[in-house]
Structure formats: C-alpha cells, structure tokens
Design brief:
Length: about 150
C-alpha cells in the first residue's frame, strides 16, 4: 500500500500523487508528517496554522505571530504552563516590534513575545500547539502562510 493508503499510489517526482484524491503529498512528506491518508497530514498542517502564523527572532526575543490576540486569561494560563521557556518574565502580548515595522513584516497580526531560553527549544512546538488550541483562536483551519490553495 502506498503512503496515502489508497493501494494505488504512484510515485511522482520526489513526492506522491494520490489517485483517488488528486492531492499531492510531496509537501506533507517533506514536512515529516506521516499518516495513512492525506486528509490526516493536511489536517495536521492546517491545524498547526489555525492560530500560529510565523515567528521572528530579534536577539533572544521570540516574537510569535498569531491570527487572533489571546485574552489576558489565556496569556496568564500560557505563562503558568510555559513560563519555563522564558529567560525572565514570561509571555506577553505586544504590537509589532520596531524591527518588524521597519520591514513592514505582517503588521496586521497579533503577537506574543518571550525572552526565549534556547536550552528549552524542544518545548516550542508544545507552546505553538497550545496557542492553536486557545479559545480565542480562529475556529477554521488554515494553510501555511504563502501557500494559498496549493495543498
């Protein structure tokens, strides 16, 4: 059986084409997401970008850009769970940083910032997952930035 679970999957370039859905799986496999059906990996990718948009590093400050602004209670809960990721303080909401303004870098998005402890890098994905599950997060799933309808 092919990676898409169809049993009829044909090799196509460096990815796979799923004949019964015509969904190209190259991006899914390159992202390291593996599942029996393309609907699983696509849901994973879209769920990953439900609220999370992108990050930007400014020195040791991690700026996480979000589609929706977390509430004060959600930021407090985030600090309770992920405060250990910070060198000092915790997470806080903020507007665009001066560096982002200078680059006109996604000025319309919500942000949280954290003075990030690089020795805790392995927990970053857990923080992103928690931000995607916030009650303030959009309910619809989203594609990665810049991918439009390419998945």
């Amino acid at each position: 059986m092919g990676p898409c679970g169809s049993g009829r999957t044909a090799r196509s370039g460096t990815g796979f084409r799923c004949p019964d859905t015509e969904i190209r799986c190259q991006f899914v496999w390159a992202a390291g997401v593996r599942a029996a059906c393309p609907r699983g990996p696509l849901a994973e990718i879209r769920g990953f970008y439900r609220n999370y948009h992108s990050i930007r590093w400014i020195g040791s400050t991690l700026v996480i850009r979000l589609r929706a602004t977390p509430t004060a209670d959600e930021v407090t809960a985030s600090n309770d769970e992920f405060g250990g990721l910070a060198l000092s303080g915790g997470t806080a909401t903020c507007g665009p940083t001066p560096a982002e303004r200078a680059d006109d870098d996604h000025l319309d998005l919500a942000r949280i910032v954290i003075e990030f402890d690089f020795t805790r890098y392995g927990r970053l994905r857990a923080l992103i997952d928690a931000l995607n599950r916030l009650g303030s997060a959009p309910t619809e799933l989203s594609l990665p930035p810049g991918h439009g309808a390419h998945l």
